[in-house]
From TrEMBL:
<keyword id="KW-0808">Transferase</keyword>
<protein>
    <recommendedName>
        <fullName>Cysteine synthase</fullName>
        <ecNumber>2.5.1.47</ecNumber>
    </recommendedName>
</protein>
<keyword id="KW-0198">Cysteine biosynthesis</keyword>
<dbReference type="InterPro" id="IPR001926">
    <property type="entry name" value="TrpB-like_PALP"/>
</dbReference>
<dbReference type="InterPro" id="IPR005856">
    <property type="entry name" value="Cys_synth"/>
</dbReference>
<feature type="domain" description="Tryptophan synthase beta chain-like PALP">
    <location>
        <begin position="6"/>
        <end position="278"/>
    </location>
</feature>
<dbReference type="InterPro" id="IPR036052">
    <property type="entry name" value="TrpB-like_PALP_sf"/>
</dbReference>
<dbReference type="GO" id="GO:0006535">
    <property type="term" value="P:cysteine biosynthetic process from serine"/>
</dbReference>
<dbReference type="InterPro" id="IPR005858">
    <property type="entry name" value="CysM"/>
</dbReference>
<feature type="binding site">
    <location>
        <position position="252"/>
    </location>
    <ligand>
        <name>pyridoxal 5'-phosphate</name>
    </ligand>
</feature>
<dbReference type="InterPro" id="IPR050214">
    <property type="entry name" value="Cys_Synth/Cystath_Beta-Synth"/>
</dbReference>
<comment type="similarity">
    <text>Belongs to the cysteine synthase/cystathionine beta-synthase family.</text>
</comment>
<feature type="binding site">
    <location>
        <position position="71"/>
    </location>
    <ligand>
        <name>pyridoxal 5'-phosphate</name>
    </ligand>
</feature>
<feature type="binding site">
    <location>
        <begin position="171"/>
        <end position="175"/>
    </location>
    <ligand>
        <name>pyridoxal 5'-phosphate</name>
    </ligand>
</feature>
<keyword id="KW-0028">Amino-acid biosynthesis</keyword>
<comment type="pathway">
    <text>Amino-acid biosynthesis; L-cysteine biosynthesis; L-cysteine from L-serine: step 2/2.</text>
</comment>
<feature type="modified residue" description="N6-(pyridoxal phosphate)lysine">
    <location>
        <position position="41"/>
    </location>
</feature>
Amino acid sequence: MASLLDLVGNTPMVELRKLNPNPQVKVFAKLEGNNPGGSVKDRAALNMIASALERGAIKPGDKLVEATSGNTGIALAMIARFYDLELELVMPDTSTRERTLTMEAFGARVTLLTGMETCRDYAEAKAAEGEAFILNQFANDDNWGAHYKTTGPEIWRDTGGAVTHFVSAMGTTGTIMGCSRFLKEQNPDVQIIGCQPTEEASIPGIRRWPEAYLPRIFDPGRVDRVMDITEAEAVSYTRRLAKEEGVFAGMSTGGAAAAAFRMASEIQEGTIVFIACDRGDRYLSSTLFG
């Protein structure tokens, strides 16, 4: 009998036909909301905790602290319960109420601060003072390692090796770094496309980091192209995915979809896979679907 953690990964991919502007190109969404914790971050959270335990960096009963915009925190809160770990999550005070309530339902303590950079500073300071252990998803190789071991191989397997373009939102950059490593090893010609918000845009789950806060796991040489996505594009595609394709997801997925369909309109043929990061029910208290 499988435990809940055995259900992390092996998420389905669906072809999107109604929004696709080019019939000679196949566009697939990988539905990461089907993970038990509801997002792609289940993969990284599980690998970071399990690997830290295996190395002896942490043990049951220890306290963890982590800065998160939401999905990693929910995943960590769910998985920490399996390993008897205490957890404090530090999150921007603009996050939706659903996220805070979900983390607290799993038994985590939630601290709300202004701005993601402030949250990261708080968590790192607390770890430096010895009050808790920080996994630090922004600098932890086990973050991208989860996608090298699982997400990338699943995409390669489920497309029969036909994938030509991989598209991902960039937040911690763990997903795009791990998938890039794996897919490029299988076929160096696979194009890796990251998306980030335009200068003025605010898209939860996608960041345009100041230089001082750029994730240390990010290697720009592993991304072939970065697309800027406007807030309006992300909102529009999030709503259209739900209404026209039946894919109910969050705003970062809308941003990735915008990049994927833009790419589809630029190429003559190919197979594009993008990450549908989470589920849309985490945003119902916001104006995203209003």
